[in-house]
Design goal:
With 122 residues, the protein is an alpha+beta fold. Helices cover 26% and strands 39% of the residues. It is built from three helices and six strands; from the N terminus they run H-E-E-E-E-H-H-E-E. The strands form two sheets. The protein has a four-stranded antiparallel beta sheet with strand order 2-3-5-6, with helices on one face. It has a two-stranded antiparallel ribbon with strand order 1-4. The protein is globular and about 50 Å long.
């Protein structure tokens, strides 16, 4: 197993303490190289994952997030399930005041899919 593959396999989402809990501010993260596998054909799916959140007590550590998102690359999973799994993992970990995850998938077979999962506005 190569170094990067080992790091991805062992990945665990980590957090930092929010240094400004008394302030509402927005964090935007874009991950333009997301990949997973179509559960029907096995072909690769490519997407940009966009994460927007207003933190409460915790913020996500970015390297652990990168490794977590890379862990989907060999998983047979639908666009909808991938986006919802990312949302659920971040919601469970961070318990943010607001969270939105968008899976902006590249066209395949002339069909483009955008999946948006978000919490209610506070």
């Amino acid at each position: 197993m190569l170094y990067g593959e080992k790091k991805i396999k062992e990945s665990v989402l980590e957090t930092w303490d929010n240094p400004y809990q008394e302030r509402d501010y927005e964090i935007n993260i874009s991950f333009p190289e997301f990949t997973c596998l179509c559960p029907k054909s096995g072909y690769p799916d490519f997407a940009t994952i966009k994460i927007t959140y207003i933190p409460y007590k915790k913020i996500v550590e970015l390297k652990s997030l990168k490794l977590f998102l890379n862990s989907f690359r060999d998983i047979y999973i639908s666009h909808e399930e991938a986006t919802n799994k990312i949302y659920s993992a971040l919601e469970d970990l961070l318990k943010p005041k607001f969270l939105e995850v968008i899976g902006d998938f590249n066209p395949r077979g002339n069909v483009k899919t955008i999946i948006k999962v978000c919490s209610k506005q506070f």
